[in-house]
Amino acid sequence: MPEFDTLDFDITEGLATITFNRPDRLNALSGQLKSDLLEALRFLGRPDSGARALLITGKGRGFCAGADLAESGMSEDRDLGASLTDTYHPFLTELANLKIPVVSAVNGVAAGAGMSIAISADIVIAAKSAYFLQAFVNIALVPDAGSTYILPRLVGLSRARAMMMLGEKLPADKALEWGLVYDVVEDEALLETATTLAKKLASGPTVALSGIRQLMAQSMNNDYQAQLAAEASAQRVAGRSADCIEGVMAFLQKRPADFKGQ
Ligand code: T3D
Known about the structure:
Helix content is 48%, strand content 16%. It is an alpha/beta fold.
């Protein structure tokens, strides 16, 4: 199992957990954290990783405060486009392409690119005291790290535009009302709630869950006919999985299914 300087990484009984571990910086994305995250996600992308679900959370009072502004500094010579392409897009793409479901447990502020990571998850659970912040405009940047793709799809153009242009905190309860998160729980209950849910996914039918993940991503861009074709193609794969055979047998035998992730 790989070990990292800036995040805790664990896989237990099929559940992988990534915990950002720079609490004194609200888990801001330093160069090291971005490269650790990329390596951890690449490991999870291997078919032999043993992971069947991923939980992402942060240590301390932040989930992730976005780019590490102290480390990067700013000057007119700096090419932030290249910085995004070289150091953000690889881990964002790896995360998007994972074949296992992803849950984020948002324990505190999720700002800038940190918010992008949080809302990239398939299921987002937030602590009551957590909040979401499109921080970019406050430092005169445009939203990045996939924000302009994901956020309007989750909350609609009107709310996404306002969040991006106003740069104001969106509290967890309002995020729930807007459909940005799946659930909000008491702070003390966050990790247990998110872990229980992620464990359920980790013992679920992985091939089908991977198919659902891909279909949901495709659904945002496909027309109806293309989506019907995508469903047929994913169902072909799911229908041939050992878990599907087990699921149907279990139903007929009136017992709980024992999915193995194959
Ligand atoms: O390649 C590129 O870099 C381009 C990519 C850009 C992607 C982005 O994510 S841009 C957006 C970057 N993020 C931000 O602009 C957020 C900056 N942080 C804040 O606005 C505030 O810290 C928060 C609203 C998130 C939280 O406020 P508060 O009052 O709860 O905490 P704080 O006191 O501001 O922060 C606590 C410490 O964390 C503090 O350090 P100190 O004073 O105790 O030594 C603060 O400096 C540090 N910190 C917080 N956010 C960052 C950070 N250090 C570095 N980078 C940060 N983003």
